[in-house]
Amino acid sequence: MQVLDATHGRDILEELVEVIVDNRQYLSDVDGAIGDGDHGINMAKGFRLCGESIASQSLSLSKALGTLATTLMGSIGGSMGPLYGSLFMGMAKSVKDKTVLDAKDFGDMLADGREALEQISDAKVGDKCLLDTLVPAIERYRDAVEGGDDFPHALQALRNGAQYGRDSTFELEAKIGRAARLGERSCGHLDAGAVSCCLLLTRLADSTEHRLEKAAA
Amino acid sequence: MQRIINDPDNVVDDAIKGYLRASPSLFAATDHSRVLKYPSSPSDKVGVVTGGGSGHEPAFLGYIGAGMCDAVAIGEIFSSPTADAFLEAFRAAPHGQGVACLYGNYAGDNMNVKMAKQMAELEDIEVKTVIARDDVASAPASERDKRRGVAGEVMMWKIGGAAAARGDSLDEVIRLAQKAVDACSSIGIGLSSCTIPANGKPNFSIEPGHMELGIGHHGEPGIEVAPLTSAEAIATAMCDPVLADQDFAGSEVAVLISGLGATPVMELNILYAHIAERLEDANIRVHRTDIGNYFTSLEMMGATLTLMKLDDELKPLLDAPARSLAITQC
Predict the structure, then answer these.
(1) Which residues of B touch A77 (CB under 8 A)?
(2) How does residue B214 score in pLDDT terms, banded at 50, 70 and 90?
(3) Is the pLDDT assigned to residue A178 strictly greater than 80?
(4) For residue A72, what pLDDT is reported?
(5) Which keywords does this chain's UniProt record carry (chain B) (predicted)?
(6) Is B326 inside any structural domain?
(7) Is residue B196 part of a domain?
(8) Is the pLDDT of residue B27 over 80?
(9) pLDDT of amino acid A175
(10) Which ranges constitute the DSSP H helices of chain A?
């Protein structure tokens, strides 16, 4: 059975930092259409700080995710700090005592992250927010694992679900956040949080799959 | 942008430097760069803390002082402070008798305060909260939980601060601050948009010749967009939903008129003259009126009206001495 080595988390985290920092302007542009236009600025600030604090350290996946969570909560503020901070803290706690993750553990990690996020926020699928990406991604991943797919195929389901979820926000009318001000005028634009969540989940899947391939070789 | 700034990304920190230099008797730095405290708070009273996004000056820092708040957490422009900042504000305030955290109903603030409160529990600091929900335009009275906090927060800080200053217990400070903000009904009108320096473009738009009735402190949508006519018509448009929100007839009230940042104070007084007439017609007695820039939205044009129903318990607390940038009275 294919498993992910959870004793080394820094390199996976560095890839998550990279994808957010590389997309700073894109995320702000997406946000600028219907929000404050600062999503990329704030996310890149938090992720870059995390990258600096974990540089050249040897960290388990749990420790690395925990560092990301506390950095986001401590440096971003607003709504994204607590939302992403809780998501990553829930994931960090989920894999705390694990040295390896199989496909089911990986899915549990995502589900525990979602649960932590939902404990601090009343946001729901359909509100035009990052949950619109997160929830279908987790559900498609879980369905794939329960249906007997192997780890790499389940990761492909995660990516597909995330992209589907991100794109679903295009037509949605925002119910929360600053974009809710626009009512129907928020339709026809992607939600910036859903976009950043899709970038993160996709990179997490890529990065995990790459490690599974390396371990198999 | 015609702005007096350096790097647009650093406006909040640059402003904090100014506050510290200008008013050392009101502001002291803490272990967190985004938290300031009143340097002379007695240590044996209940701590009063607030916080919120920047861009609302003089809120929130302007309400630090004697008989007011003890520490304030400061966020980016229109963005909640971090949970860490709220936690440091709880630590920086007197906290042996507990801390009353009095803030406005916004998603980010709710989440960050909730997390900070949990962290404070680990340090044996007892924190209780009152969440201001005075904006009548943001949800009907039957859904008061969804209402945003606006200028009624000023009344909440004044009452809570005065109760803490006279030695009330945490539960009593919370009860009175809650009573104060429940007694407030507010509404805003916006005549123009505002620009966050780091964005460089207006946050939204209001067509020339129009006003948005019920606009929020960050440009949240109002009840309706109407043609901009006279101050008298604006006064009526603002008074109608506020007077319908609570039974004010026959009561004594405090009135707070705050500019949103770019409306001249002269125009706020023009507006008030008509509001005062409306109140008189409705058999409402005005105990006191405060007019000025108390809770703003960067350089938005417009104003908010807050009406607070008074009783024998609230009145002495509202009139109690205070010294802060925004409210000083003896």
Answers:
(1) 75-76, 79-82, 85, 108, 112
(2) very high
(3) no
(4) 93
(5) Kinase, Transferase
(6) no
(7) yes
(8) yes
(9) 86
(10) 10-22, 24-34, 39-54, 61-75, 80-94, 103-120, 131-146, 151-168, 192-216
pTM of the model: 0.90
Q: Say yes or no: B135 contacts chain A, CB-CB below 8 A.
A: no
| B145 and B89 share one domain | yes
Cα dihedral B109→B114→B116→B122 (10° resolution): 170
Instruction: Identify the CATH number of the domain defined by range A4-216.
Output: 1.25.40.340
Q: Does residue B1 lie in a domain region?
A: no
Residues 173-192 of A with CB under 8 A from B: 176-178, 180-183
Query: Does A124 contact B at CB distance below 8 Å?
Result: no
Residues B126 and B200 in one domain: no
- Provide the shortest C-alpha distance from residue A155 to chain B (in Å): 31
Identify whether B316 is part of a domain.
no
Claim to verify: residue B257 and residue B171 sit in the same structural domain: no
**Can you tell me whether residue B49 is helix, strand or coil?**
strand
**B171: its two tokens:** 């539960």
Residues in chain A: 217
What are the chain A neighbours of B196 within 8 Å (beta carbons)?
A: 36-38
User: What token pair was written down for B97?
Assistant: 């008798």
**Angular region, B258: left φ>0, alpha ψ -120 to 50, beta rest:** beta
Is residue B279 within 8 Å of residue B306, measured between CB atoms? no
Q: Let me know whether B192 and B151 are in one domain.
A: no
Tell me the chain B residues in contact with residue A32 when contact means C-beta distances shorter than 8 Å: 199, 201
Q: Are residues B198 and B144 in the same domain?
A: no
How would residue A26 be classed by pLDDT, with cut points 50, 70 and 90?
very high
Please list the active-site residues of B: 56, 218
Closest CA to A91 of A76, A74, A72, A111: A111
| Ranges of each domain in chain A | 4-216
Count of structural domains, chain B: 2
Distance of CA A32 to the CA centre of its chain: 21
Dist CA B125 CA A108 (whole Å): 34
Q: Are residues B63 and B97 in the same domain?
A: yes
Question: Is pLDDT of B89 > 90?
Answer: yes
B185-196: per-residue pLDDT in tens? 999 999 999 998
The verdict on B115 and B14 lying in the same domain is: yes
Per residue in A144-169, pLDDT (tens digit) is 999 999 999 999 999 999 999 999 99
Query: Domain span at residue B284?
Result: 184-309
For range B113-126, the mean pLDDT:
93
Reported as a pLDDT band with limits 50, 70 and 90, residue B219 is: confident
Nearest CA-CA partner of B51 in B41, B59, B42: B59
Tell me if B129 sits within 8 A of B181, measured CB to CB: no
Query: Do B124 and B214 fall within a single domain?
Result: no
User: Best interface-test mutation with A: which of B79, B193, B201 has the largest number of A CBs within 10 A?
Assistant: B79
Q: Is B119 exposed, middle or buried (0-12, 13-18, 19+ CB in 10 A)?
A: middle
